[in-house]
Each structure stands twice: as structure tokens, then as C-alpha cells.
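Table S2 (continued). Query chain:
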Amino acid sequence: MSTVYGLLLLAEAVCAQYAWAYTMHPENHSLRSWFVCSPRNPSDPKKLKELKGFLVDLLLAAFFGVAPFPVIVKWIGWFVCFCMFLIIVQSAIDSIYERPLKTRLLGGAVLAAIFIASFWPSARAMWIEEKSAVLSGDLLGGTSQVFTDNIPRMIPTLEMGDEQKPTGLIKIPNVEQDRNLYFKFFPDSVVKLEPGKRGSIISTTVRDRFGNKVVEIEKNHWKVYPPYCSDKNYTDSALEVLDNSGHVVLQLKIFADRALVNAEWWDNEGHGVRIGPFPGGGSRVTSLGPMVQRNEWLIKPMFKYPSSEHWSEFDN
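Corresponding output:
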């Protein structure tokens, strides 16, 4: 929709510019002036130059298609190839080339706009699929502001449960005093928070009940493990991970002064704990084991799935 609005604004600006030019020089900008032909004396009747240009353009378009470029680069390349194709066609067809330059430019602009409007849904779908397929990323810490001074920041707070009415608030000790102070569930499953240049920085590891790593976060850099992660969704300040059963095992939101975490933590001996929202507000802590899964108290997803179709879309 924003693309359509942008094209409408551009069209409005072009119309206003032409109206001004017509007011200043009506003889050069009348309606008839758009269709006056200037006879062309072709120096290359066989259009060999245009044929070579077309072949180069075709090869370049194929190159952008097969090369491992990001989706945005691919579509910019294809758009440039399309514009080159329009120039070649205008040069190759005498009845078009004989038209005034402004007529050819307007026709090219209209066709370029049609190209964008036609392929925008496909380009966006490819971009969403690309973003959803990544296996690692970075959380920005809940704020776009970067602290460049050395002033000690407030100790982040760990919140669990319902976002509107969280309970079980846990103050994390100042990590500058003791790097070994953190909130520990099991010897190999901990949650650690510390203040950073962009706000809260979190580190934790989430395993499944068999001890396999599902997701690992180290100083806001996260990585998922596909054999044990069926899907995940994320934004710059939020991350949610599903295990191979499709259940939420990590739900995380980073703010400037706190982090909201709901997750399952397991050790490699089959002992687990799940912390999630409680109906009506608050949090619920559930002990888990090999024969105790408590699927009636699963964590409700906050994103829409599959992420390949709903990347970064919250389920409101």
C-alpha cells in the first residue's frame, strides 16, 4: 500500500511540474507536442547494436537470478535490467524512437511503475521467506539509542509471565561486580542479564527434554538449531522459538531496562521447568520431567506462523 501511495505522490508531482512548464511555455508543452515525430535516419538498419544490448541485458538478468545475492539486490538488479530493456526497445523500434524524448520518458516511467506494482507482492514474499530462513541474528537491546558515555546503567530486570501484569520480578546483580552472578535454573541452563550500549543484554541456552540445544543466545546474538527447532519468528527486539513438536520453548522481548522471558529450560538429565503467563495475569512455574510434560499449560505463541508467510507479524 505504501508503494501505491508513493507512486501516486510521484504522479502528482510530475503533473504539477508539467502544469507549471505549460504555463511558462505553452507552445512547447501543448498536447500536440507529445505526438510530433522527428524522422530518423538509421545508421544501423539491422539493429545489431540493440541486439547485442538485448543479449547482454538477458544475461545480466539471468546472472541476478542464479547468483546468491540477497533478495533486495536481486530485485534491484532485475529492475535495472527492465529499464535497460525499455531503452533498447525504444531505440530498436523507429516509430517509438521518433517520438519526443518526453513522451518516451513518460512511457518508460509508466511501464516501470507497472513493473513495480506487478512484482511487488512476489518480491515481498521472497524477502519475507529469506528473512524467516536465517538461523542466527541479533537483538538490538530494546532501543535505537546508543550510549557512548561510560556512565553505569541501571541493572536490568528480568520479568516473567504476562507482559501487562508480570510477576516474579528478579533483579540481576550488577555484572560489573561479579561476572558469575546470574539466575540459574540448572547448572547448564542459566539466564544472564547485563546493561549494554543499547539497553538490556541477555544470554541463555534452551534445550529440549533430551538435552539437545534448541536455541542459544549469547549477548543478544541468537542461534537456532534446525534439527530441534521447527520454526522461529523474530523482530529487532523480540524472539520466539518452537521446538520440533511445534511448542513454544522460548519467548523473549528486550526492552531498554528489562527483559520479558517465558521459556522451558531443561538439563541433560531430563529435569525441566516451564515459566509462562498465568490466565488473568502473572506467571506460572511448572516442573517438568520425562513423563510430566503439562501440555495443558503450554506457552501461547506471540507471533503468527509459519514464519515464511508471517515473518515479524505478532498474533494480536
